[in-house]
Amino acid sequence: MMTYCLVLFLSLLLCFGFCAELRNCELRGQKWPVPYKRFDYRPDVDSYCQALYPFCPTGDPDGRIPYIRESDVISVYRLQTPVWEFKYGDLLGKMHIMHDAIGFSSSETGANFTMEWYELFQLGNCTFPHLRPEVNAPFWCNQGAACFFEGIDDLHWSQNGTLDKIGEISGNQFNDMAKWVQEDNRTGIYYETWTVRSDLSPNATVWFESYDCSQFVHRTYRKLAELGAKLSSRTQTNYTKIYLYSGEPTYLGNDSAIFGQPALKNLAMDIKKFYYTFRPHQSFVDIALSLLAAYEKVVLNKMFYLYYNFEYWQLPMKYPYIQITYEEVPLPSD
Ligand SMILES: *[C@@H]1O[C@H](CO)[C@@H](O)[C@H](O)[C@H]1NC(C)=O
Ligand SMILES: *[C@@H]1O[C@H](CO)[C@@H](O)[C@H](O)[C@H]1NC(C)=O
Ligand SMILES: *[C@@H]1O[C@H](CO)[C@@H](O)[C@H](O)[C@H]1NC(C)=O
Ligand SMILES: *[C@@H]1O[C@H](CO)[C@@H](O)[C@H](O)[C@H]1NC(C)=O
Ligand SMILES: *[C@@H]1O[C@H](CO)[C@@H](O)[C@H](O)[C@H]1NC(C)=O
Ligand SMILES: *[C@@H]1O[C@H](CO)[C@@H](O)[C@H](O)[C@H]1NC(C)=O
Ligand SMILES: *[C@@H]1O[C@H](CO)[C@@H](O)[C@H](O)[C@H]1NC(C)=O
């Protein structure tokens, strides 16, 4: 009897040890920041998602980029302007929420082009989902994509923002970049507003990296540098970052795992309640009540549900919770 108990005890101990080990392994195996997932192709957009402003109205519908003669010299411009969404007037600009793009102009033909990456259905739709009675899981209209079109609207960029020449590239380098942009656009399909990090210190752990217009601009600059371009700016190059601060995030699961199983219905309810707070608003009373509810959830309960790679994570929030900065990111060849 005694030995039996001992064996049982030991195996329990072993099992717990093993399980704990497994859990730790899983934790240790988690790479931070969580890599942004690339897809094989871009899925069709659900007809529920309707753009307030059409996406890329003057761009080529198939995203074609004109071929430039090898001997051409192309000027590259850094473009930046405050985001203006009519509901908020220029409030977003005052908070330094900026939109970034890249300009190109050909010295042989004089033609010029703008290239940018942005939300198909506006920023709010990429930040918070819709709760639809007929669909169990929160519904996201969160695609983002690259838009390439002819022309640079000098006034639009220079009046309240930046239009700054940062270098010259050859026609060859331009054509190579164009191929890369199309591939990047095909495989990187959704917009992510938040950067999540552990604290304010410069060597904080970054749990999740945003995927937005400025990240696209940085990726393109890095690609151009890789192709041999020299880029430099006389002025500081600052970009908007929207941070969440949290302890180590916990993985929760994807839509079918959470919203397709009765076993997780409490979690499913809680996620929906969380996002209900951030739904698109009707009245000022609603906004006031929702701000209070958001404060309670994020600051008092220290809780945030993040949707990343079409999967949910729970963030144990901490001070200062949310922060918008406008900070310098040097050009790759500076
Ligand atoms: C967000 O998506 C909804 C639903 O498709 C749409 O009605 C709305 O115009 C979109 N844009 C904004 C800014 O809410
Ligand atoms: C990127 O993808 C979007 C959505 O499919 C498309 O409208 C756009 O033309 C593409 N842009 C480029 C540069 O390939
Ligand atoms: C782009 O082309 C337009 C039309 O020719 C011109 O007005 C504008 O100054 C050009 N902008 C740049 C940055 O080359
Ligand atoms: C620049 O900002 C001013 C004041 O906010 C505004 O009236 C003007 O339309 C803006 N210009 C552009 C080109 O957006
Ligand atoms: C960076 O991290 C180290 C150890 O991880 C820590 O001792 C140091 O204080 C941190 N530096 C800053 C500026 O926070
Ligand atoms: C969702 O997660 C489950 C396991 O947690 C996995 O089997 C399934 O393939 C995932 N679904 C999608 C669409 O990724
Ligand atoms: C740009 O960023 C630097 C360093 O990140 C900061 O000191 C500076 O104040 C920023 N400029 C503006 C206009 O915010």
Automatic annotation (TrEMBL):
GO MF terms here are: hydrolase activity, acting on glycosyl bonds; palmitoyl-(protein) hydrolase activity
Example GO biological process: lysosome organization
User: What catalytic activity is recorded?
Assistant: 2 1-octadecanoyl-sn-glycero-3-phospho-(1'-sn-glycerol) = 1-octadecanoyl-sn-glycero-3-phospho-(3'-octadecanoyl-1'-sn-glycerol) + sn-glycero-3-phospho-(1'-sn-glycerol); 2 1-(9Z-octadecenoyl)-sn-glycero-3-phospho-(1'-sn-glycerol) = 1-(9Z-octadecenoyl)-sn-glycero-3-phospho-(3'-(9Z-octadecenoyl)-1'-sn-glycerol) + sn-glycero-3-phospho-(1'-sn-glycerol); 2 1-hexadecanoyl-sn-glycero-3-phospho-(1'-sn-glycerol) = 1-hexadecanoyl-sn-glycero-3-phospho-(3'-hexadecanoyl-1'-sn-glycerol) + sn-glycero-3-phospho-(1'-sn-glycerol); S-hexadecanoyl-L-cysteinyl-[protein] + H2O = L-cysteinyl-[protein] + hexadecanoate + H(+)
**Pfam families, A to Z:** CLN5 (PF15014)
What are the record keywords, sorted? Answer: Glycoprotein, Signal
Q: Quote the InterPro entries the UniProt record gives.
A: CLN5 (IPR026138)
Q: For this UniProt entry, which residues form the secretion signal? A: 1-19
Cellular-component GO terms for this entry: lysosomal membrane
Q: What does this protein do?
A: Exhibits palmitoyl protein thioesterase (S-depalmitoylation) activity in vitro and most likely plays a role in protein S-depalmitoylation. Catalyzes the synthesis of bis(monoacylglycero)phosphate (BMP) via transacylation of 2 molecules of lysophosphatidylglycerol (LPG). BMP also known as lysobisphosphatidic acid plays a key role in the formation of intraluminal vesicles and in maintaining intracellular cholesterol homeostasis. Can use only LPG as the exclusive lysophospholipid acyl donor for base exchange and displays BMP synthase activity towards various LPGs (LPG 14:0, LPG 16:0, LPG 18:0, LPG 18:1) with a higher preference for longer chain lengths.
Q: Which family does it belong to?
A: Belongs to the CLN5 family.
Instruction: Please report the name of this protein according to its UniProt entry.
Output: Bis(monoacylglycero)phosphate synthase CLN5
